[in-house]
Amino acid sequence: MMKKVGMGAAALAALVAIGLGVYYFFSAEPTYKNALPADATVLVCADGKEINKAVNLEELALLIGLNEEEKLKDCGVNLTEKIYAFYRSPESMGLLACMSDADKLTAYITKNGLFRQKVSSIEEKDGFNWLTIQENEAVLIGYDNEKFLAVGPVSGYNKEEVRQQMIKWMTQGRKESALNTMLYKKLEEKEGLLTYALSMKAIPEQQMTGYDRQIMEALGGIKELNVAGAVQVDRKKLSCPVEFFTEDNTINGYWDETDKHLKKLTAVSAEQAPKGLVTWMGMHLEGEPLLKQLRENPDIRTTLIALNLVADVDKIISSINGEIAFAIDSNTNMLLTADVKDETVLKDLPEWMQPYKQNGWTCKTLSDKEYLLGISVGSMPFPISVGIRGGKLYGATGSLLADGVGKKTDGNELSDYKSQIKDNVFFLLFSLPNFMKSDVYKSLTREDMRMALSLGMVNRIVKDVVLTVSDARNSAFEIYWNEDSDLLKSYLK
Residue 68: phi, psi to the nearest 5? Predict the structure, then answer.
């Protein structure tokens, strides 16, 4: 009996071991990735499988001038695996790929060269094949049957030092590599033709302007911030999602607190946007916490004090409570609307305008809540309609836009983006076809045919450009294709 139990336990242990082995075989990272240096501050990945799904590679090869002999299908590099680029410093950048056959690559390079550059003879040393690409600054390449690593720039005085460093990377294990870093883990979470993850440590402080530092500090600090994202392409659009991330608890706490005040758009303002939009921006805004935050900045606080001597700007800002939207149409008319909780905030507008009458400014009362301002710009009067209608504060430079405030507009340029608008706290649309009809476009291209031709080519491919923000950490930049473009039909699957 004991013997049978012992044999059963042994069989069970064997099955578990086999199961773990199979699991490890299919789930383990390909070992060529172990050559990624742990101190890389930028990682970029090109996914051959994703590229092949989205792009017609044969047509693209013809477009950029690659002939049949130069296609890399049988060069010994495994192009179905991911290709990585990394950056450590301006003196240390590299490219890592998976190999399938070192002899094939050696034969390919001997026959065709590499990347159309001047290459040295191939040398076998320390278990790897070595060669140098010499074009301006040299790049050193090492490869075997498992991995291909190119690092540069190198020169005569540091070539051996770089080679020794490459040997160290190509023989290190997973624990010593980038695979255990937060940067790599975040990179692998992203999906797309190209993915990337970078640390702000990659930006040398001496190359940052004071304005750059202010932006980074406003985001929560310079050195502790990281960014990850992707480039995704299909027949409808090119999408570039971006995520900020950090291990700093203070910054994460700041982002979490910010998210409590962010609210998704309802798409009501989008439904009321005018037709013929060149650009539209929408977001949710709570005026009282915004005013408190603005006052914390000394320069803005001083500006607010000056503005409040003319009008009750604090009261106007505090009254905003809901969606705020800004639009420009193809006639260059502008419309700003904001949901307000106090419909009396403009009641003293005629009084606020009194000091400016000597400058030719006028204020005509249309109703108890609506006014027509005449602002002199040079010798030309510039009419602006302002008022409150249906709980919305508005300002418009065109009478038609003012007449449409609070009314639903069927079939405007935002109709296709309703679900997307409601998924985000901020939405920005730029319509290239409508821009091409605008006076601004005509003015820019009247005497610049090169710009006109360039924008015309872009317009054949691009329809709309969209920027969205979903929370304090995540945003996305998207280019929507002109679906009638023959060019895109040729190169996208």
Answer: -60, -40
